[in-house]
Design goal:
Elements: H1 2-5, H2 14-18, E1 21-23, E2 45-47, H3 69-72, H4 75-79, H5 88-91, H6 97-100, H7 135-138, E3 150-152, E4 158-165, E5 168-172, E6 178-180, H8 184-190, H9 196-204, H10 206-211, H11 215-218, E7 221-233, E8 244-246, H12 248-253, E9 272-274, E10 276-287, E11 291-293, E12 299-313, E13 319-324, H13 329-335, E14 342-348, H14 361-365, E15 431-433, H15 445-451, H16 458-461, H17 467-473, H18 481-497, H19 505-508
Parallel strand pairs: 7-12, 14-15
Antiparallel strand pairs: 1-2, 3-4, 4-5, 5-6, 7-10, 8-9, 11-12, 12-13, 12-14
Length: 509
Amino acid sequence: MESCNSCHNRGKRIGVSFQGLMEFPYGSPYNEKGMKQPKLHTKKYLFISDDLHHQFDSREENPKGGLLCQDCHTSVDIHGDGNIHGTTMGQVEIECSDCHGRPDKYPWELPLGYGDEYGRDLKGDARNVAKERLQLSWQYGTRYEAEDGFLLTSRGNPIGNVVRRGDLAIVHSATGNDFQVPVLKNISKENKWKDPSAGIAMSAVKSHMDKMECYGCHASWVPQCYGCHVKVDYSRDKDGKQTSGIDWVASGNAQKKNGQTAESVLGSGGIKSMGKPYETRSYLRWEDPVLGISGEGRVTPLMPGCQVVYTVVNEEGKVIANNVIAESPDEAAQRKQKHIPLAIDMAPVQPHTAQRKARTCESCHANLKTAGLGIGGGTFGVKQSMDLVEDLIDAKTGEIIPKKYSVQIPGIPKLTFDWSKIVERDGTQVATVGTHWPMSRAFNKEKLDTVLRAGTCMGCHQNMSEKALWEKISTEGKLDPVKHLEMMNKMIKFMADKNVKPATLDKAK
């Protein structure tokens, strides 16, 4: 995996996330020499939790050991299909369902394009399996027996190391291990859900499977680097020398006869141009990733993309642009809204952080940050557009008393909300989402209403003020979460036994 991680450690950071690593600034704890950890890919890391496909402990029927990147990703995924895609996720042809299927369908019973719909209504027949691999893939590497056929990707290409064996799917790993895939239809038929909520989420609530990416629930964490503060300094040093930095675009385009580009030669550093760039951030998070809609039209985790705030210093050392955020009128036009979103992007991502135990229902349906409304529902970060001064201030008027004072935190004029917020409760999008992937967006009002209708505790507890009523239905003492759920379950079954419809609840009360 280190070969893949040499590149896939920035951007969406999936290579290091797969191993459970997230960059952080501290480098603790100290090692046996009293030093901080060494830098990896120029950064220090914190361990969160590695992807279940990476973990060494597997299911009972499988050997120990994790999967490698190439066990899932095909040659088309890695080496391209001849097209230049606007986003890397547009090139990826593999979907979770290609191996795991659905609770009601085996992988080979799904139509082509499932999980890769791009807004299309799929009406095709079952994709079935292939008896032969693509010529591209059998020309090199291990050749496996087809058995009952090679499983197909969502785009119809054979997965040369994944075969059907009766009602099972077997992955031949490049490590030499063979793994039996947990096929959802088998689990559903045998009712072997390890948690009852899994059967509800995947089987009973079918819209989850129809409208969500599997990792929308199973990716319980995502690295979130909020605020990308960029400064480009064109000023001259004390000797009058122009500051400069590497021009990565020019370097990448300057090809030598042997195919190398200017920055690829060890020790060269690449082509330099005027202006030295600097970069820093606002803060890091990993928990409760925001959800939105991806370019495939499915609910997906989002992560901060390029949330750029830029400052420019000219040759005389004067700041000519300070904490500027661009706007995105094209996103406003696409969303058919008057409000122009800020170009501080949230990007759809397959974070490669899947866990066996998925996110809880409450972590999505009762979490305003998950819905895109910001940490604390937009409570925090509301003064980021203002200069904040820590000095003697008139408590009545808010005026600063000293004539000479310094600004503690400079304002970012357009940023009137927290970095994690992408949408207002009425569905107005305030920041861009997946600008390279046209169907990507935040939840609209209709979707927000659907997502947030859970967690309605007051539906029952508003009656606590009616003591006579509450005494009839309550139990002495406090209920723990398990007993609480049991009590609600009894209420529903009682209503069913008595044939009480919701419209007649007031009479029943």
